[in-house]
UniProtKB/TrEMBL annotation:
This is Pectinesterase. Keywords: Aspartyl esterase, Hydrolase, Signal. GO terms for molecular function: pectinesterase activity. Belongs to the pectinesterase family. It comes from Eleusine coracana subsp. coracana. It catalyses: [(1->4)-alpha-D-galacturonosyl methyl ester](n) + n H2O = [(1->4)-alpha-D-galacturonosyl](n) + n methanol + n H(+). The gene is gb21876.
Length: 349
């Protein structure tokens, strides 16, 4: 093959790649010190035109932004970008006094149903085609600094982020809370190299998501009952949905001596689906691994599975007898990117 033909093929491939990726049409800057276009994240979101069809970057300068932020469904194609999840965060301390079962009783699919759990979210995205990079979302209600309040009032649902749009992706982000930290509410989502901290049902919802090389940190205090990493549900046996953890790790909070113990998950309903694939599991994981919870005695449709996991918490001899043993074809269906992606990831900016 001639060098000219090789060069032509290379240019064609580069052209195809460039056309697949989207570019940012505008950048809006947020700076709490008043040195940007806006001083709050919500004001920047509000400035995006309804029905927007071009990617707009909202760049948030370092700082802690104490506010509740909502990206409504009519404001699509937003790229929310921080300067790093350790130096840029959106924080608030709202909370609820109702369990996640309350959502199920109040028609779970309607975010506007006035559910106190939903209303507690620091950050809510309902728009399709949303990307977040290098920023943290925090709910400070159950923070360690509020220990005295926790002892008096107990723990309540306090969501850091509710993710409900389709084709939403998070890169290098962090989600910090205690109970119900990340509401992976519904639709398809992708999380890459993110950190999620919490103790009780701290990744929950009806989402169909892949967590790629993410770090999951249990903050359940030592000596307490075990916590739960996930609480997932699906509408029915044939409905889409599932939380897939590819690589990454499940660990305890180092500052608390490794943290208290945790289950990998409990079934929010009898169609719950959670898969851990080649994940490193610390000693924080309890031997049983899973709980049936709302599935009751009928766990035939619950898909809780671990494949190729390592670490002291991955020992399978003490696991519940009803944990699923997936075939090679079933494993491939879950861990392949096609589980969530029909091409939308490559079209992000």
């Amino acid at each position: 093959m001639s060098s000219a033909l090789l060069l032509l093929l290379l240019l064609l491939r580069l052209s195809a790649w460039s056309s697949a990726c989207s570019s940012v049409s505008e950048t809006i800057t947020v700076d709490w010190r008043g040195r940007g276009d806006f001083s709050t994240v919500q004001a920047a979101v509000n400035s995006v035109a309804d029905g927007n069809r071009e990617w707009i970057r909202i760049h948030v300068k370092p700082g802690s932004y104490w506010e509740k932020v909502t990206i409504p469904s009519r404001k699509r194609y937003i790229l929310l970008e921080g300067a790093g999840s350790s130096v840029t965060d959106i924080s608030f301390d709202a909370h609820a006094h109702a369990g996640i079962d309350h959502i199920m009783r109040r028609r779970r699919r309607n975010v506007s149903d006035n559910s106190p759990t939903f209303r507690s979210a620091t950050f809510t995205v309902l728009a399709d085609n949303f990307v977040a990079r290098h920023i943290a979302f925090k709910n400070a209600y159950n923070a360690a600094a509020a220990g005295e309040r926790r002892r008096k009032a107990g723990h309540h649902q306090a969501v850091a982020a509710l993710v409900g749009g389709d084709k939403n992706a998070f890169y290098g982000c962090a989600f910090h809370g205690f109970q119900d930290t990340l509401c992976d509410y519904q639709n398809r989502h992708y999380f890459r190299r993110c950190i999620v901290t919490g103790a009780v049902d701290f990744i929950f919802g009806y989402g169909q998501s892949i967590y790629d090389r993410c770090t999951v940190v249990s903050t359940m205090p030592p000596g307490k009952q075990p916590g739960w990493v996930t609480a997932h549900a699906r509408d029915g046996a044939g409905s889409p949905g599932g939380l897939v953890f590819r690589g990454g790790e499940v660990v305890g909070l180092a500052a608390a001596g490794g943290g208290g113990r945790t289950f990998l998950g409990r079934a929010w309903n009898r169609f719950a689906t959670v898969v851990f694939y080649r994940t490193r599991m610390g000693r924080v994981v309890v031997p049983q691994g899973w709980q049936a919870w709302n599935a009751g005695t009928d766990v035939s449709n619950v898909t809780f599975a671990e494949v190729g996991c390592v670490g002291p918490g991955s020992e399978m001899t003490g696991r519940v007898g009803w944990e699923k043993h997936l075939s090679k074809e079933e494993v491939k269906r879950f861990v392949d990117i096609n589980f969530i992606d029909d091409g939308w990831l490559s079209k992000q900016p």
